Amino acid sequence: MKIAIIGAGNVGKALAKSSLRGGHKVTMSAASPENAAKAAKSVGAHAASSNVEAVKGADIVIIAVPYDKLGDVFRGLGSAVDDTIVIDATNHINTENPAEVLGAPSNAEEIQKRHPKVRVVKAFNYAFASRMADPTVDGIRLDGFVAGEDQDAKDKVLELVESIGFRPVDAGPLVMARVLEAMGLLNVTLQIRHNWPWQNGWKLVGPPA
Ligand SMILES: NC(=O)c1ccc[n+]([C@@H]2O[C@H](COP(=O)([O-])OP(=O)(O)OC[C@H]3O[C@@H](n4cnc5c(N)ncnc54)[C@H](OP(=O)(O)O)[C@@H]3O)[C@@H](O)[C@H]2O)c1
Fold it and tell me: Which of 3, 81, 112, 135 could link 166 by a cystine bridge, Cβ 3.0 to 4.6 Å?
């Protein structure tokens, strides 16, 4: 598949690496075209000089920018992602006041509400970037949860998630993005609270294996 990744930081680079390993074509963009070019070179992906250029012809677009940049990104994209599968991999982390995040709709639902023509799917946000690059821990495939309204879009994302190395798990409708974002927040707060090494990933144990 042709994958466009908007955001060329920790997450963008990690997903570029694992997508390339999974046999996909990857184009990356960033706020600064120089940063995109540098990141793309470091992983062997293509760089685009703008977000609009990056998403041209993409089967799937992954959004990997800070939460507070989502508005800029979608305003800039305009209609370029209408009818396109867009994975929201973002988290809104507030460790001082988690209630602010837990009491609100998810980033993915906000995107869907503001851009109804976009086929929004939530995935990857519950994993640390290191695990997105390599989703296997002690020989065990981590779970790759996927939530969204559009089943066809979700099926394509489940395919991508599996090709990257996660066990693909359909987590239900887009409202479940609230749970997936809370899982991201919980994992972050656990690392800080217990001084853990930022390597944990989510895995449901029990059948089916
Ligand atoms: N780090 C993790 O382990 C992790 C795990 C799960 C989810 N997340 C979530 O994933 C998102 C990205 O995290 P990160 O750690 O990768 O952040 P990061 O390393 O700070 O990278 C952010 C990237 O977003 C780009 N960006 C900012 N505004 C942009 C715009 N208007 N258009 C295009 N690109 C833009 C930046 O471009 P420049 O390079 O030009 O500044 C940068 O490449 C966040 O929402 C975070 O909560 C992170």
Answer: 135
